[in-house]
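Re: [help] complex structure
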Amino acid sequence: MADRIMLIEDDKTICGELMTLLSANKYEVGVVSDFRKIYEETAAFAPQLVLLDVNLPYEDGFKVCAKLRCRFDFPIIFVTSRNTDMDELNSIMLGGDAFVTKPYNTAILLAKIASLLKRAYGRQESAVIEHNGVALRLENGCVECGGVKAELTKNEQKILYYLMKNAGKICARADITEYLWDNRIYIDDNTLSVNVTRLREKLAGIGANDYIKTKHRQGYLV
Amino acid sequence: MREYINIRRFLKDRVVIIALNLASMVFMALFLLSAGNSPDTVLLVIGMWIFAVVLYFAVSFWVRRRYLMEIIGLADRLQEKYLISEIMEKPTRMDDEVFYRLLKSADKSMLEKVSEIKQEKQDYKEYIEQWVHEAKTPVTAMRLICENNKETVPRTLLAELERADQYIEQALFFARSDCTHKDYIIRETCLEDIVHQAVAQNRQLLIQNNVRVEVEDSEATAYTDGKWIAFIISQLIQNAVKYKNDTPVIKLAIGTENGNTYLTISDNGIGISGDELPRVFDKGFTGTNGRNGENATGLGLYLCKRLCDKLSVGLSVSSDSTGTKFRLVFNRNEFVIN
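Output below.
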């Protein structure tokens, strides 16, 4: 079952775009429509996690957070453009679990959501992902095909992970690069090519020939 | 001020009285002589007179000098010299009191003016902060729209958005840079995390300029404000990209030396010439690099230096034709640790 996330955000555009983003990442999203009835609407939606803006009509986010905390124990992430340390401290003291400043990096926001859900409800990502007979073991970074194993470097592992997560879709080089940067691997275009070539050699070595296909001028595909 | 207090000035101010005394002496001597007094008696009388006058001037000079020296000493010990009228004793002499009253009313009107300007400045700062937060909302919305429509939105748009955000951030930090303690909180901060944050803030800029970024793993921490440091690093990264070479590499390293934690940001860019190096932190200084095409404002490094000074972080720069290296040194403050 998909995790439910409640958005308490008064900017319509941001709210809509966040809905698109979170839905695309397989979350069920609820929004507050009447800011005088935040608590009732939140209780009715029964979310697993709340994204809370600080600047809200009627009451500010800190007050909302404190009130929500009295009744619920789901994780609360503050999303705000006020990025003073005082605000951050406030949010944590009032029971917020994380503090993300606008304009947020979506990868960081998604990672925060995933890690909080994991901590709060023990959601586990499966340790192995499989596609087309090739299995990537995340705990030791090994790739397996028909019983033959090969070890991958951190970069190759992340590239393969991203491609397999998006199996069947063409992944643009720029998207892969951005994904790697989000994971603190700062490589340039040439290094990406070198890494993909090495990854292909390793895959060929375990019998998965031509596993990663190149789509000319578009990107890679598994 | 002390040089104005000397006996010559003192006597000069009293030249009329002295002349009057001398003239009286001459008349008195003539009168006494013509009245049949012996020259010895006249000399004695005049001698007594001179003695009395000299004594009077000597004592009154000494008293006056002591009084003025005391006030000057009082003012010297004051940090805000204009407060002197508040703490000096009310003078007893007529003209002193007039000047004392004048000083007081001048102070009062000045303080009113100063507090008016302070208030205006505070209002302006608050407005800037408010504006920054409001400006960030549409930037956030634009960014989300771009991310949700990655296939159709060109990456260059994301880069421009990132740039707009950096300029907005710069305004915020500029507004904060002259106000003190309220805007930062010193905490034990993991510097590597801060470095990654700064890199993430400039992701599009770095990717599109094909920059290789190397961050050394480090557990080192420093007692500082992470947001300010992230902003400073971010500014330095942007500079490194501005003045890059064909195959740009930016290295960020963290380490400890003599108990102090340091962070270096080095690039392999075009470098800064030696004679311009001491002035790079000056406000408005752009140098030959800045004039050669890039849109330098002369603000970035000045702001970095100001923020570093506020946080007591040492910021230094070294450069040659193979690149530039900035170094931030975080002092371990014993007071904080104990």
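The radius of gyration of chain B is 35 Å.
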